[in-house]
Amino acid sequence: MRAMSIGATGMLAQQLNVEVISNNIANLSTTGFKRSRAEFQDMLYENLRRVGSPSTDTGTLLPSGLQLGLGVKPVATYRINAQGNLLMTNNPYDLAINGRGFFQVQQADGTTAYTRAGSFQLNQDGQLVTADGLQIIPSITVPQNATSVTINSSGQVVASIDGQTQLQTLGQLQLATFTNPTGLESIGNNLLLETEASGSPVVGNPQAAGFGSIIQGSLESSNVDIVSEITNLITAQRAYEMNSKVIKTADDMLTVISQLR
Amino acid sequence: MVLTSYQDSLSRAMDVVANNVANINTTGFKRHDIKFESLVNRPTPAERIVFGVDRGTYRDTSPGPLYNTGNPLDIAIQGPGYFQIETRNGVRYTRGGSFQLNAAGEIVTGNGEKLLGDGDQPITVPDDAQDLTIGADGIITVKSGTGISVTQVGKLKTVTFADDQDLQNAGNGLYATTQRPLPDTKSVYVQGVLEQSNVQAVNEITKMIEIMRTYQQVIRMLDNEHQRQSTAIDRLAKTTA
Question: What is the ipTM for the molecules in this complex?
Answer without folding.
Answer: 0.73
